Structure formats: C-alpha cells, structure tokens
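Checklist before submission:
- one chain only
- standard amino acids only
- sequence pasted in full

Submission:
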Amino acid sequence: MGFRKFFNWYSLKLETNPLLTKSLTCGALNMVGDTLSQTLEKRVKPEKREKGFDFKRNLIFGAIGSFYIAPLLHVHYSKFLPYVVPDGTKYGALKKLAIDQSAFASFITTGFFIIINVVEGKGAQKGIDDLKQKYWTTMVINWKIWIPANYMNFVLIPNKYQVLFANFIQIFYNTALSFIHNSDDIGKKEDQPKQA
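Returned file contents:
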C-alpha cells in the first residue's frame, strides 16, 4: 500500500469513525514515544541498562493514549476549539493557542499524572505527589514543544487532520513525558537552582 493509498484510506476512516481512528493512532504513537523513552533511559541511566524492555509500561502508555488523550484531543480539536474560536476569526490561531496551552494543557497534564499512577497500581496520592514534583518541568517542556507545533497546526493543518498532526508531534513529547514520569529525581527541590 503506497503512501497516497494509505492516506486516502486513513482519511476515509477519519470520516466514518473519527474517534476510533484517532484513539488507535494515538495509542500506537504513545507506545512509540515510550519505546524511544525506554531506549533513551538505557543510554543515560546506568541502573536501567540491565533491565529488559518494559512491555507493561509500554502498554499502559498506549492505553492512556487511546482511552484518555485521544478522546480529549478529539473533542478539543474537533468540537470545542472550532465552537469557541470559529475558523476565519481574526487572530484565530493565536486565540486557539492561548486556550490550548493554558487551560487544556494544564488539565491534560494533571489528569495524566493521576491516571497513569492509578493504572500502574501506585494510587491517586502518588499521582498527586508526582504532579506536585514534576508539573512545572512537564509544562515547560510542553510549552517548548506545543506552542510552535500547535501554532503550525492551527494555521496550516485542516481541522480533520489536526489530531493526527498532534499525534506525530506527541511522539517527541511523549518520549519526554514518559522519561519524566519514570524518573524519580526530576523536579525535586534539591535539584532546583538556589536563589541568592
């Protein structure tokens, strides 16, 4: 199957079953991001070199993509943003970006840390503790990746393909997010620069 044929098939699936198509795509690409993260961890963390590939962790990351992130992205890009900021609105891309990177990014990040810890069997309190420790580190990386990416998304990409575009950018973001989630030392107070 050539790229054009695949693209036409995928476009048809977005028309006939958009949420399922976006959920399967997001789950698969979340797994790719976690795979890259596990590979990176083995290179930079000596204690992780001896461990094999963590399939359970990878499946959990994929499931969160399919059942949490994709439905939120579907509603956010396909329903909410077009309703709040109709196409053709003056400064529409900037307005969408402001909404996306303030309330939505904070909401999805908060939910991620709580949900992943619950699914991993660590409990909601561990999710809240991780959120307190890792929120700002995560949000800074989020803004570095998503502000330029989503500006391009809102300006150049047709609405129908915005979740797909976001999913591909998510490969890089999820590599960082998985790394942050699976690192106990990120965001600790003693790692913060001392103020004079």
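Reviewer check: The mean pLDDT is 92.
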